[in-house]
Design a protein that fits this description.
Layout: H1 3-16, E1 25-32, E2 42-49, E3 52-58, E4 63-66, H2 69-79, H3 82-106, E5 113-120, E6 128-137, E7 142-148, E8 151-153, E9 157-159, E10 163-164, E11 170-178, E12 186-192, E13 199-202, H4 209-240
Keywords: Disulfide bond, Glycoprotein, Membrane, Transmembrane, Transmembrane helix
Domain Ig-like: 112-201
Main location: membrane
Amino acid sequence: MDKAQSCFLLLELFLAFSPGGAFYFYVLDRCQFSSDDGHDVVFLEQVYFNKILEGQYNSTVGKVIGYTEATQAYANMLNNNLEFIKHEVWKTKLCKKNSPLAYKGLLTPVEPYVWLRSVEAEYNTHPHMLICSAYDFYPKQIRVTWLRDGEEVTSDVTSTDELPNGNWLYQLHTYLELTPKPGEKITCMVEHASLREPKLYHWEPEPDPRWSKIVVGSVGLLLGFLFSIAGFIYYKKKSVGEIIFPLNVKPFQTDFNI
């Protein structure tokens, strides 16, 4: 057993036989990171007793911190132990080395749900604003761009940062102000680790409600005209099949006496 392990063992024995009536003790090693290359790795070795954090080694600080009067003395002793500090530095390097493997092998990318819509732009030079929203995606890195007839648009474009949902998933919103032109194609292009190739979402302009009323009225007039013609044809056909006698003329009769 090396000196580092023996120092930790002394701390554990002190907590185990302290007169606090404690019954629950454990040591937790934690490797925390959020990047795919391990540059932001933090290694924590924490000592809990009675479900209370008594002390910990933090790689960003580089030393052990005691949170109670009893453990502060032991923390100072461990910090003065070169073998213990070297051992903690070795575990920190191991954490940084393996974090990219864990990131790529254990974390599965989640495909974003994309909603493309238009709103009326108030107090702007352009009458319309398109919003392309990407929801519930992972990892955080994503690229959302606007295309106009296949060409990337950079002017009149604003975007939010990747916003955390609080459940390891993210969302992002990007806005495009524009004055629509007849026949042009506006597209929101999304690139993400969960997609094998960029995904395109095309904007379909909503028809002008004034034209909708004109079309409905025209269809109504056309249907009325067709029903009128059909009724007239039916009336003419029925009239040809009947014999109509004048009111003052009787049908021809013959009276033969044999």
